Amino acid sequence: MEKANEEITSLIKSYYTALGDKDITTLRTLVDNLAPADESKITNAKYIEGYEAGDIYTKKGLDDDSYVVYSCFYYICQGIDTKVPALAEFYVVKDTDGNWKIDGAAHDDSDEITKYEVSLRQDDDVKELKAKVQKQYEDAQTADPALAAFLDGLGEDVTGSAETADGTTLVVTEDCNVRAAASSDAEVIGGLSAGTEVVKKGENGDWIQIDYEGSEAYVHSSLLEEKTE
């Protein structure tokens, strides 16, 4: 894992600025194949006021014109002073004009890319980075009870239904993808490492709804088990 070069750093920082501003026009220049569902989710986001990019790292992609990017960042919750540490994973490619862009459809178009990214999550440096950010996330909530309460309540506010805000703590049994909707064909918006704890917010068929970086997301139920003391 290496610190991202100037071009990749600029791309990711511009992405978070546009994301916080809900600037779809700019996001379309930074993300190839930005899905209409993603545009709607960004435009209608209620609880995130902005984003701030942190350290950005890369690993070589499947060819010389691609990178897997690991972006440490913070998101700012509405009415909460403490910034929330988070980690995002992108697949970045060089387009025909020689510009670096986030490939918004990488996982839809290529199982090979998905498998490659999953394999990289077993690397010690990736595991260490994820563990570091996870600890920062937990420490932020410990230091700010208002933040912890806010994050815990997101699922209820999003769904508007107490029945889906189950509140059960589940443990990820193996490294897995997090999807934007309850379908194996839905967009992969991130990943979780084995052992990560999540709170069940609802259920849709074989899929468990969770909160992922402030957004509604889904993990297949076969990859989760109830936490035991």
UniProtKB/TrEMBL annotation:
Superkingdom field: Bacteria
Q: Which residues form the SH3b domain?
A: 167-228
Q: What is this protein called?
A: SH3 domain-containing protein
Matching entries from SMART domains are given as:
SH3b
Q: Which InterPro entries match?
A: SH3-like_bac-type (IPR003646)
